[in-house]
Amino acid sequence: MLPIIIFLFALLLGTKVKKAIRSGLLVGIGFVGINLVLNLLTTTLGPAAKSMVDHFGFDLHTIDVGWPAVAAISYGTALGSLAIPVGIGINSILLIFGLTKTLNVDIWNYWHCAFTGSLVFALTDDFALGLFTIAVHVLIIFWLGDMVAPDIESYFGYKQMTFPHATSAPSYFLAKPLNAVVDRVPGLNKVEADPETIQKRFGILGDTTVVGVILGLIIGVLANYSFQETLQLAIQTGAVMVLLPKMVSLLMEGLNPISEAAGEMIRKKFPGRDLYIGMDSAIVVGHPAVLSASLLMVPITLVLAVVLPGNRVLPFGDLAAIPFLVCLMVPVFKGNIIRTVIAATIYMSVGLYIATWISPLFTEMATNADFDMGSNSSISALVDGAVWTTGVFVALGKMLNWFGIGLLGIIALSGLLYVNKLKKRGNKT
């Protein structure tokens, strides 16, 4: 669907047919390339994680089934199937009244909202409340999408683009105060650890490709791989570091004409108003700082799963999806890998407890969707089970029911109003 949506969107913005066709095709091909590289990461890290678990004798009983299974379960219910029309409808209303700057074309990822809505439905057995939860979650991702857009442009260089992605955007909300805290820690606040600085200091050893190979070697050793298997894993992780940014560049080649046309149209018809194109955060997971921090987080996440008392979730299916969980921390920390790893460690520590807490509900949801759990009696996932918004929705739905979810909706609407109306008015005065 995405190439067709991009093509039609380009035509609506006044792009010539030839350029619109090319843009749609390049965006579609770029995402195919990104998915191929991410699948490579999944098929290499998954077996390595399993081997690491077997080698160290980890004993955790709730399996992380991975986001593809979670998306299928979320859309596999009558409630979840309504997430896309609800998302499109709310986006249209918000744009009409100027309450968001984000035009979201990433409609597939409304499954994240279907996930929280289905959890609340499983918790309360109230279909209407589950649907209301989906709507409130949609409001939250547009609020976060509008908030993160300036940092995306200043760090990644992507103009008029944002990521209303319910896995990635919440970590941005946490990174802001954590960055302010680190700025006040003597010594740590002076450490520069972005990919460019690391490469200057360490030469070839700081090159992102070499860093990927080294991290692959470390993971291979921890997994008790043979010498040949370790080398194979090292080259594969190095390949991900090289290939993923190239696939993103191809995708951006298709998006740039759309972004320019959108900016021109908004300047003409709505002077003084910006428009962000909402896309999948997969566009930034190939950034060297994101990938480096994410690969470091693979063994750290497994260690956390073992040492945290009370955790029952075994990270597995979503280890390769860690870049999606941390990618929007990176622009806040200006690419500082050390700060990103510290923040991601805190984030994953809390996230594993959330994933453990919601596992009974998620297992029930999977059963209701006729999902084949195999020999597993309890399942969960890091995406979106370890995201703080999931914990908030379930907690408020359980304790305060309609009032709690409604309160969250009021906060989201107030945030959108502040970002897009009051803040703009304040800047003028």
Percent in helix: 55-70%
Total DSSP helices: 15
What sort of overall outline do the alpha carbons produce when their principal axes are compared? globular
Low-pLDDT runs of 5+ residues are none
Main location: membrane
Transmembrane segments: 29-49, 70-99, 119-144, 204-227, 275-308, 314-333, 340-358, 399-419
Protein name: PTS galactitol transporter subunit IIC
InterPro entries: EIIC-GAT, PTS_EIIC_2, PTS_sugar-sp_permease
What can be said about this structure in brief?
Helices cover 69% and strands 3% of the residues.
Account of the 3D structure:
The chain is 69% helix and 3% strand. A three-stranded parallel beta sheet has the order 5-1-6. Strands 2-4-3 form a three-stranded parallel beta sheet. α2 (17-56) packs antiparallel against α10, α9 crosses α10 (227-269) and α9 packs parallel to α11 (288-307). It is built from 15 helices and six strands. The model has no long low-confidence stretch (mean pLDDT 89). It is globular, with a radius of gyration of 21 Å. The protein has 429 residues and is mainly alpha-helical. The chain has one domain (2-428). The protein has helices spanning 2-12, 17-56, 67-75, 83-96, 111-124, 127-156, 169-182, 195-202, 208-222, 227-269, 288-307, 322-326, 337-368, 388-399, 401-428; strands at 62-64, 102-104, 161-162, 276-278, 313-314, 379-380. Residues 1-429 form the PTS EIIC type-2 domain. Its main location: membrane.
What topology emerges from the helices and strands here?
Blueprint lengths: L1 H11 L4 H40 L5 E3 L2 H9 L7 H14 L5 E3 L6 H14 L2 H30 L4 E2 L6 H14 L12 H8 L5 H15 L4 H43 L6 E3 L9 H20 L5 E2 L7 H5 L10 H32 L10 E2 L7 H12 L1 H28 L1
Parallel strand pairs: 1-5, 1-6, 2-4, 3-4
Helix pairs in contact: 1-2, 2-10, 3-5, 4-6, 5-6, 5-13, 5-14, 6-7, 6-15, 7-13, 9-10, 9-11, 11-13, 13-14, 14-15
